[in-house]
């Protein structure tokens, strides 16, 4: 029964795999795994293995593509071979999940019992059902440099801002609880569209690509900071 439950869970996972943010990657249905070639997730859309979540390193952790689902995975997670129908049933490199699904073989779990942390939510899955998601730049404290990443306010966790290094990462880099923050507009500086989140001595400065995107983020963050989690609540407050 446990094996059946696990297989069904994997099937549901594959049904929602690869939403193709900022790509033309179509979703690959479970029954199509191995039967047709997948669209590969681009290397520059991930900074960590899409299976084990370990960061990629140019020296010790190379990027590989699973030939069945198209995920970008590390060498350890792609150290499996399975016959793929679309390639004349020749053995191809696949990830562990696809290997189990395609062959029916079991694999000893070396991380069994490890619970998912609060940051272990895939960017593609979260973004597909988000209140707002896009690329932003988060400036450092002196305002001269910063980090560009993929920012998401999930629909099922609307009081938290999740920050990913890339839009297809399977784990968030960090998160910011939005409740209680103030959203501040800032004048345009050197063609940069700036705004801030501030609470006590904690201040975050963001840069949006356009003024329209900046206004959308300010509105979404202000709503979350006020604890408004549904549009109905926002409309009721406006009526009052």
Number of helices: 5
Percentage of residues assigned to helices: 10-25%
- Count up the domains: 2
Q: Assign the CATH class of the largest domain.
A: Mainly Beta
Strand order of the largest sheet: 8-7-6-5-11-10-9
- How far apart, in Å, are the first and last alpha carbons? 54 Å
CATH superfamily label of the largest domain: Pleckstrin-homology domain (PH domain)/Phosphotyrosine-binding domain (PTB)
**Biggest β-sheet, characterized?**
7 strands, antiparallel
Our estimate of the beta-strand percent is 25-35%
Identify the CATH architecture of the largest domain: Roll
CATH topology of the largest domain: PH-domain like
* DSSP strand tally: 11
**Global structural class:** alpha+beta
SSE run: HEEEEHHEEEEEEEHH
Radius of gyration: 21 Å
Low-pLDDT sequence parts: 11-26, 110-116, 232-240
Shape: elongated
Overall pLDDT level: 78
Provide an overview of this structure:
It contains 5 helices and 11 strands, in the order αββββααβββββββαα. The strands form 3 sheets. Strands 8-7-6-5-11-10-9 form a 7-stranded antiparallel β-sheet. It has a two-stranded antiparallel ribbon with strand order 1-2. A two-stranded antiparallel sheet has the order 3-4. A hairpin with a 5-residue loop joins β3 (about 80-85) and β4. Mean pLDDT is about 80; it is low at about 10-25, about 110-115 and about 230-240. It has 2 domains: about 25-105, Herpes Virus-1 (2-Layer Sandwich), CATH 3.30.40.10; about 125-235, Pleckstrin-homology domain (PH domain)/Phosphotyrosine-binding domain (PTB) (PH-domain like, Roll), CATH 2.30.29.30. Helices cover about 20% and strands about 25% of the residues. It is of the alpha+beta class and about 240 residues long. It is elongated. The chain has helices at about 1-15, 95-105, 125-130, 210-225, 230-240; strands spanning about 65, 70-75, 80-85, 90-95, 130-140, 145-155, 160-165, 175, 180-185, 195-200, 200-210. Keywords: Cytoplasm, Cytoskeleton, Guanine-nucleotide releasing factor, Metal-binding, Phosphoprotein, Repeat, Zinc, Zinc-finger. This is FGD2 protein.
């Amino acid at each position: 029964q446990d094996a059946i439950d696990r297989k069904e869970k994997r099937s549901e996972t594959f049904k929602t795999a690869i939403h193709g943010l900022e790509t033309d990657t179509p979703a690959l249905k479970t029954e199509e795994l191995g039967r047709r070639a997948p669209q590969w997730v681009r290397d520059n859309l991930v900074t960590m293995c899409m299976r084990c979540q370990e960061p990629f390193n140019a020296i010790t952790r190379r990027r590989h593509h699973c030939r069945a689902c198209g995920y970008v995975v590390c060498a350890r997670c792609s150290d499996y071979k399975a016959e793929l129908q679309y390639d004349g049933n020749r053995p191809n490199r696949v990830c562990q999940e696809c290997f189990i699904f395609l062959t029916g073989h079991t694999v000893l779990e070396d991380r069994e019992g490890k619970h998912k942390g609060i940051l272990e939510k895939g960017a593609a899955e979260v973004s597909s059902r988000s209140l707002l998601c896009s690329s932003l730049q988060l400036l450092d404290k002196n305002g001269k440099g910063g980090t560009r990443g993929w920012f998401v306010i999930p629909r099922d966790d609307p009081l938290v801002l999740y920050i990913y290094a890339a839009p297809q990462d399977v784990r968030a880099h960090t998160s910011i609880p939005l409740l209680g923050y103030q959203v501040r507009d800032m004048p345009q500086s050197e063609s940069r569209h700036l705004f801030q989140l501030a609470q006590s001595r904690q201040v975050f400065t963001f840069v949006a690509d356009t003024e329209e995107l900046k206004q959308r983020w300010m509105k979404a963050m202000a709503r979350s900071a006020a604890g408004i989690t549904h549009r109905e609540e926002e409309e009721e407050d406006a009526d009052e």
